[in-house]
Amino acid sequence: MRQIWYPAFALSILLMIAVALLMHKGFVPLDELIFERLALSILAYATVLSFMRLFWGRRPFFLWLSALCLAAFCREIHFDGTSTGFYIALVVLIAVVLFKYPTLAEYLNTRIVPTLLASAFFCYFLAQTLDQQWWRFAIGKPLWSPPLEEFLEVLGHFCILLLAIFSRKNTAQNLSSARPQLPYMNPDAFKWSITAAIVLLNVVLVFVPGNLAYLVAQHRDVLLGLYGVSHFITLLIIVPVSLLVICTIWRQQPDDSTPQREKTFKTLILTLAIIFPIIVVDVGMRLVQAKRYVGNPPLFHRPPNSTKTGIIHDLPETAFTYPIPRPGYPDTQFTLTSDKRGFRNKIDLDQYDFLMLGDSFTEGSDVTDDDIWPTVFADLTGNTVYNLGMSGGSPKTYLETLKKYIHDISPQTVVCMVYEGNDFRNSNFTEKPSRTSLSDTIFKRSPLRRFFKNALIRIFGPLNAKRPLARGKPLTPDHPLYAISCLPLVIPPDSNSKYYAFELKSLLEYLETADLFVNSPGFEKTCQSLRQIKQTCLNANARLIIIYAPDKPHVLMPLVKDTLSPKRLHAFMALKQKNLPAPDQLFEMLLPNFSVKETALANFCLQENLEFVSTTEPLRQAIASGTQAYFTYDQHWTPPGHAIVAQTLHQYLTNHPPSNANSTP
User: Fold this and answer.
1) What is the DSSP code string of 64-107?
2) Residue among 573, 569, 572, 549 at smallest CA distance from 560
3) Maximum CA extent, the chain
4) Torsion sign (Cα): 66, 68, 71, 72
5) pTM score, two decimals?
6) Measuring CA to CA, how many Å separate 634 from each of 207, 344, 518, 551?
7) What is the DSSP letter of 326?
8) Long-range contacts of 244-248 (CB under 8 A, 24+ apart)
9) Roughly what angle, to the nearest 10 degrees, separates helices 60-77 and 101-108?
10) 3-class DSSP state for residue 135?
11) In the structure, how many helices (H) and strands (E) does the chain have?
């Protein structure tokens, strides 16, 4: 610690404060994306430069620095698990400094290296405290915005870049200037410094919980009533490793005359003995696991001629949930039957009157075969209906599926359901790589990884799940769960009330204005797909009807505009979105935006001479009268909701019959 040049360290702190104040006053743009791109550029340059200096000088210090740069760079790209990996890398790199101190001492015993390292780690520490909402009660909350967190990370990365550029060896010339020569750090003092750093890291991880309200708002699991899943897994790895490192630091090194080659061989055998059984179990689980889908997007379906049964429990997705959890829709049994093509149909015919396209809202998620709206519509009209809906579908999927099956089914009418929640996303049209990345194959798709994660959730999710409510503290603005106390919504506010909850991100989408949405790539590409669907139907001499499926907030929020607390709504949205209007102005800003997507699609259908059916108002009226059209804790329709959609389509066709059964209107 005596090697740190404290005036320079203090200068970095003053720079952080200055930029934070400039952000607060609006002189520095609060653009998080700019900082993220700058961070990647700086780290990439620092990583390349460190490797170059390693190649030229063959100095172990630059191997250590390259590892640090590479760990930070991987975390900045946000690979799955890199946050946990970065913490592990820091502990390992600190341990390397301890064990290889004589090898690295020629660089560590200069002023510039400890000073820049201390500045970088201090920036990273502050960035993490901001991310964990340590400063949420500070004066001037806009000061502690995500861009400031990104800036602190950029400043830390910049210190690492300076380290890669200016680090140099400790020589007599370097230390014989006007300042007195600094002695090497005492070994015991160095051990205490490393131990203190490791303990501090563990204290931060253990005693700083996650943002509980945000985790619940995004329907993410909370373990032990304190931590998110990634945070908890980090603890499971970091704490034992830290204890092992500390024990190794302070234990007396015995005289060991074992040859280095024998030590290396024993280490290799021990490593293989741990890794090999894990690989065998993972491969075995991959071989026996059942496939949910056959094929790849945009053409995929369920396993043909299969049947799945079960009971639907409308419960919160996580054990740690809203402050006042409400009862959901009653438990219902379901059967999901797939036909010879792998789609949800109970009978196989050579020709059908209607063909239904869509995603899970058409296939019927969490609803039995007889209650999905295509089946109810068939019962109402006496027509034969073929359901081509598939969970996870998109307009691109609808088009490719229609092209493949329309001539086999030969329908008179095609009904394409467009779901507001995700059908307009640009990612639906992004070309997926033909080959899965190695990290996805090994880690993300690992059944052993999923089993371990689910086991942690099952064991530790229910533990301490009621902790914030056990204090008996009222739901005032300083309560840790106040921001999610507005959910579930109570509609209607009388003895016939039903309850509805939804994810934070689904409400934030309605901050988008009409101009931004109409000009978005996702909407334009959706319209292109619908034009091609129209042309495909014309070529097959089939009538095309577009039916609109609104998202939950679109239907529900206008019903609670007079009963929902503006402060609670503002707190809920502020968990993710900054710079919101004042609470009393927020609803007035949101209200016109709820119909932006539907109006844009209706106008497009009018221009393209496409028939358009909206289910928004029928669903809203039914919910206002006490019918539970959506599940409480799921985004999909209940059986009554499916019946409303079927009746709406039936009513439209009654009022707009085709002039010829085999021609489009």
Assistant:
1) HHHHHHHHHHHHHHT-TTHHHHHHHHHHHHHHHHHHTHHHHHHH
2) 569
3) 99
4) negative
5) 0.74
6) 33, 20, 28, 11
7) P
8) 245/91, 245/94, 245/95, 245/98, 245/198, 246/195, 246/198, 246/199, 248/95
9) 80
10) coil
11) 27, 13
Element (H, E) at 359: none
In whole angstroms, what is the distance from residue 218 CA to residue 379 CA? 38
What is the per-residue burial (b if ≥16 Cβ within 10 Å, else e) of 499-532?
Answer: bbbbbbebbebbeeeeeebbebebbebbbebbeb
Torsional sign, CA 204, 208, 214, 220: positive
Strands 413-419 and 498-500: unpaired
Helix, strand or coil, per DSSP, at residue 489? strand
Mean pLDDT of all residues in 344-356: 91
Element (H, E) at 30: none
With CA atoms as reference, report the closest residue to 390 among 365, 410, 368, 373.
365
Residue 101 φ then ψ, to 5° = -55, -45
Which DSSP symbol is given to 637? Answer: B
| DSSP letters for 542-599 | -EEEEEEE--HHHHHGGGGTTTS-HHHHHHHHTTT--SPPPHHHHHHHHGGGGGHHHH
pLDDT, tens only, 370-415 = 999 999 999 999 999 999 999 999 999 999 999 999 999 999 999 9
- Please, what is the angle between helix 112-131 and helix 6-25, to 10°? 30
Pick from 40, 120, 106: nearest CA to 78: 40
Closest CA to 564 of 539, 586, 542: 586
What pLDDT shows up at residue 78? 59
Give the contacts of 374 (CB within 8 A, at least 6 positions apart): 354, 356, 362, 364, 385, 387, 389, 646
pLDDT in tens, 184-235: 445 666 677 777 877 877 887 788 788 889 999 999 999 988 888 888 888 8
When pLDDT is cut at 50, 70 and 90, the band that residue 549 belongs to is: very high
Element (H, E) at 614: strand 611-614
- Which residues partner with 545 through β-bridges? 415, 611
- Where do we find the tokens 């946990």? 84
How many angstroms separate the CA atoms of 492 and 635, rounded? Answer: 18
Q: Which of 553, 537, 606 is nearest to 357 (CA)?
A: 537
Amino acid at 426: N
Cβ atoms of 600 and 520 closer than 8 Å:
no
- Give whole-number Cα distances, 586 to 45, 136, 330, 387, 576, in Å: 43, 21, 34, 41, 15
> What is the C-alpha separation between 297 and 294, in angstroms, rounded?
10
Instruction: Give the pLDDT confidence of 224-282 residue by residue, as tens digits.
Output: 888 888 888 888 888 888 887 777 777 765 555 667 677 677 777 877 887 888 888 88
Cis peptide before 488 (omega within 30 of 0): yes
Residue 367 C-alpha from the chain's centroid? 26
Using CA atoms, how far apart are residues 242 and 88, in angstroms rounded to an integer? 9
